[in-house]
Every structure is written in structure tokens, then in C-alpha cells.
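The following record pairs a protein chain with its ligand, adenosine-5'-diphosphate.
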Amino acid sequence: MAEKKQAIYPGSFDPITFGHIDIAKRALTLVDNLIIGVGINSEKKELFSADERKILISEVFKNNPKVSVISFDGLLIDFAREIGVFSVLRGLRAISDFEHELQLSSLNRHMDNRFDCFYMMTSEQYSYLSSSMVKEIARLNGDVSSLVPDNVYKALRDKYHHV
Ligand code: ADP
């Protein structure tokens, strides 16, 4: 039997948006298993805790057995080594994403040459979409229902009380 194709899709996912979901769904046509890695980064000011982010993502993919959601602390390369998966999926929106991704990929490959990234271009309708914009709009009482799934919409409303 052929070996299972697995990939890690790492990120903050604070919170998950339709942009992330679109990338994950498209990548699922290429891999057998997608491990969504929720990074715990104490330097970043996060709205949702790692557990909350993990639960929101798990709810979105609850009917898809090809997706698992794991949170990880520390370096992505250490997480990759721990689970033995070195193919990493990232999404690209703008040129600025490219520069950041080139750095991330190069440094990770420098640390461990088994590491490799593959990229999917954002779908046009999500090219402007980021978790930080979603939070900003929700905080200012704007309507984010077309940008995030229902459970995230409700969670944002609960966080900010008035969304
Ligand atoms: P990070 O803090 O690691 O960049 P994010 O949660 O912001 O984590 O993003 C995780 C990944 O998803 C990144 O590769 C990012 O470029 C990608 N991504 C985020 N939003 C979109 C979008 N709207 N379209 C395509 N890719 C996206």
C-alpha cells in the first residue's frame, strides 16, 4: 500500500476564517491527512486561547476524518520532528506574505533539511481576508458573518459582547 501523504498546516488561527478553510479544503485534494497545527506563541497577543482556537477549528472540520487539529508550543520544526511530518502547507495572499514565507521556509530548512513547504494561492474572494482584520471589524461592531463560519461568528460576539 502506498504511504499516506500527510501535511501540517500551521498557523495562529486566531480565529480561523473562510480564507484558512478554503486553503485547507483545496489542500485536502492533494493529501490524505491534514494536520492543522495551532501555534501557541506567548509573544503574540491572542484573542482566543489555544484551546478555544483548537475547538473552533475542530468544529469546522468535525465531519472530515482527514483533518486533525493539534496545538503546539515552541518551534514548528520541533513539532514536525515530534509527529514525523515534514511537509508544510501555507497560504499566500500578497507579496508581503511571500517575503515572510521565504524566511520561514529557509530558516526551517536550515535547521532540518527534511522540512519542506508548499503553498497555495488564496482564492480571489479571500485575498484581503486576515484574522486580524476580522478581529478589528468584530471589535468595532461590524458584520463578519461573510468572513468566518457561524461558530466563530458567535465566539467573536461572545468575546466582544456586542457583535
Ligand atoms: P501565522 O500567524 O502563522 O501567519 P495565520 O493564522 O495568520 O498564522 O495564517 C496561517 C496560514 O494561513 C498562513 O500561511 C497564512 O498566509 C494563511 N492565510 C491566512 N489567511 C488567508 C487567506 N485569506 N487566504 C489564503 N491564505 C491565508
